[in-house]
Design brief:
This protein has 487 residues and is α+β, with helices and mostly antiparallel strands. It has 21 helices and 9 strands.
């Protein structure tokens, strides 16, 4: 058998992920905060992309909006420009007169030229960061009479408190790391436990509650006995078992438990937690204007982008520029153009998807969550002629601001639950009905999962008890025995 080389033609089909396609997909699946970071990073890295600050103020008629009854807009001349529309900051935020907030000290006895009004803000209102739990404890320890070795032990214990104020290490670990004896470690722990807030540096919830009661002079009370020995029964509100274990009557036990739950806190360090809160920034708004639902894109923090005019002018001086420099500038301008087009495509896609959701879920925006209809990704994909994977990327981590609140776009997609003689309901609509039944129940005689199933069946909604329990757990609602309140 002879070996030989041959030329052969072969026709195949395959998906090629171009850099432009990868960029479009990457921008499409970003949420609002990630998009802002990506825009700033691209402006810093690409000299061919810059922010356009020469745009005139936008008129109300230039806002990106569309009625829910109209077709999604095609690419207009204004949207084809190499920039994105945005209301300037000075159009919405009034200029601040910082002299109103500054101290105007005088050489006279008076601290200021004039007495500020009673509702004037204080300089302390502008402190950007509140003190942490560790800083608060260090400030209190500074007033305690501790020597150098005791101060090291105190700092070690305070540094091992978690965000709830609980001590995460044992006394043996304190002794090993600070080279102290058991009595010294236990003494410093008691010193810290005497600090504010009450219950700090406890090893568990039971000890924290007992320290708070001890601070109130109730170390020998029924409440102290319950939190020390019957905390598990307190969590399940098993009044009968607590009465049997303590030998007290039910009214006294009920009053004691109400005092524990209302006057004590299981996590004393949590109010001093200074973790930053990440707020949800909606990508799109749905507003009811004169009885008509209107979609608005949120472009408040999207800068106006354009191609760099300086680089474009440099390309015109062909004689003074080398080939490498010209190739570099062309590549950067090309990348900038693709970035702007991908950003516009992202905004148009989000608009189309939200407008399609609005068609299917118009009753939700008018009457509330109980009128949410069954909807799947395929329905929206067929409506706007896009692939389901694109709809999935658009609806992930994207939020819409409505008159009913802020919802993730995936919230509007739900499976169908059949209803006798009526149109099928969405699973989220069923969960909302269950929540409403529980809110309207008698707190002394709450509804069981089986009772809720029967009530839904009376309205034609056939739902098994286990399904009701599953939906209740998804809404983080306690079972009937934990919701029952004593008379």
């Amino acid at each position: 058998m002879a070996l030989e080389l041959r030329q052969q033609l072969k026709l195949t089909q395959k998906l090629v992920m171009t850099p432009q396609l990868r960029l479009a997909i990457k921008l499409l699946q970003m949420n609002r905060l990630e998009l802002s970071d990506a825009l700033q990073a691209e402006i810093e890295q690409n000299p061919g992309l810059e922010e356009d600050t020469s745009l005139a103020d936008l008129q109300p008629g230039n806002q990106q909006s569309l009625s829910s009854t109209e077709e999604a807009p095609k690419l207009s001349e204004q949207r084809e420009k190499d920039h994105t529309e945005q209301v300037r900051v000075e159009d919405t935020v009034p200029e601040t007169n910082w002299d109103d907030y500054a101290n105007t000290f005088d050489s006279n006895v008076s601290f200021s030229h004039e007495t500020p009004p009673a509702d004037a803000p204080s300089q302390f209102d502008f402190i950007s960061e509140k003190p942490s739990l560790l800083a608060y404890l260090q400030w209190q320890l500074a007033h305690a009479e501790l020597d150098a070795d005791e101060w090291d032990i105190a700092l070690f214990i305070a540094g091992n408190l978690n965000r709830y104020g609980f001590l995460e290490c044992t006394l043996e670990e304190v002794m090993a790391d600070t080279k102290c004896d058991h009595d010294s470690a236990e003494y410093i722990l008691e010193v810290i436990q005497d600090l504010d807030p009450p219950g700090i540096a406890a090893r568990d919830v039971s000890e924290s509650l007992f320290l708070q009661l001890e601070r109130k002079g109730l170390a020998d009370s029924l409440a102290a006995e319950i939190v020390q020995h019957h905390l598990n029964l307190l969590q399940t509100r098993n009044y009968k078992a607590i009465c049997q274990a303590t030998g007290k009557k039910r009214p006294e036990v009920v009053r004691t438990i109400e005092y524990i739950t209302s006057e004590l806190t299981p996590y004393p360090g949590l109010p001093y937690n200074n973790e930053a809160t990440n707020y949800v920034v909606p990508d799109v708004y749905v507003r009811n204007i004169d009885g008509e639902l209107v979609v608005f894109l949120n472009e408040e923090d999207v800068p106006n982008l354009k191609l760099s005019s300086e680089l474009q002018n440099l390309l015109q001086d062909e004689e003074e520029m080398g080939k490498d420099s010209k190739r570099y500038i062309k590549e950067k301008l090309k990348d900038a153009g693709w970035f702007i087009k991908s950003l516009h495509q992202r905004q148009r896609t989000i608009f189309k998807v939200m407008d399609s959701i609005l068609k299917f879920q118009a009753d939700f925006f008018k009457y509330g969550p109980t009128h949410l209809k069954p909807l799947i990704l395929k329905d929206v994909a067929e409506d706007i002629e896009m692939h389901e994977s694109t709809i999935s990327r658009v609806t992930s981590n994207k939020y819409v601001h409505t008159s009913l609140g802020i919802y993730e776009l995936k919230y509007f997609f739900s499976t169908a639950i059949p209803v006798d003689g009526k149109e099928a309901l969405a699973a989220e609509s069923i969960r909302e009905r269950i929540r409403k039944l529980i809110l309207d129940e008698d707190p002394h005689k709450p509804l069981s999962d089986n009772s809720i199933s029967i009530k839904l069946g009376e309205k034609g909604i056939k739902l098994a008890r286990r399904t009701v329990a599953k939906y209740r757990e998804q809404m983080k609602i306690l079972p009937v025995k934990h919701r029952r309140k004593p008379r």
